[in-house]
Amino acid sequence: xxxxxxxxxxxxxxxxxxxxxxxxxxxxxxxxxxxxxxxxxxxxxxxxxxxxxxxxxxxxxxxxxxxxxxxxxxxxxxxxxxxxxxxxxxxxxxxxxxxxxxxxxxxxxxxxxxxxxxxxxxxxxxxxxxxxxxxxxxxxxxxxxxxxxxxxxxxxxxxxxxxxxxxxxxxxxxxxxxxxxxxxxxxxxxxxxxxxxxxxxxxxx
Length: 205
Description:
alpha+beta
């Protein structure tokens, strides 16, 4: 004979077994497992090692955006694969604004031997870490020079072609030697520089 004090416990146990055996309604499926992350697109990653003649500060990793600026991205990769950028100085560095490089003359007036590019302007904002193509007053004068934003600057939006974004190592850009604010940010030698610039797909790790 079951004692009265055990009846509630037996009732709850029977109820639990009944619910556990019930089928799951078709309209309430179990949550799906999270999708696996997409493989890293090393063809559109740039490894930018920065420093000076005596020291490498570290590696800046740039994610290129061919969806925004396919022609400018292709230009950067072509020149990087040539070794064009290796050793080039950051000739213009404005604190709290940006650091610019990509000029073989080191004066802001040089460029590669490839033709200038038509603009690929987008509404992508120029915030800290954005990589954008430098140009003269003519909108179709971008060639090899680019700059990395050290802070946000909304006034550049829709004025320069955004081609990528720093996803790692922005702290190393903060170490780049500051320019003379009275000389448009120009940096006197010995200036900080690109030690080496490569497409990640070409680097064996």
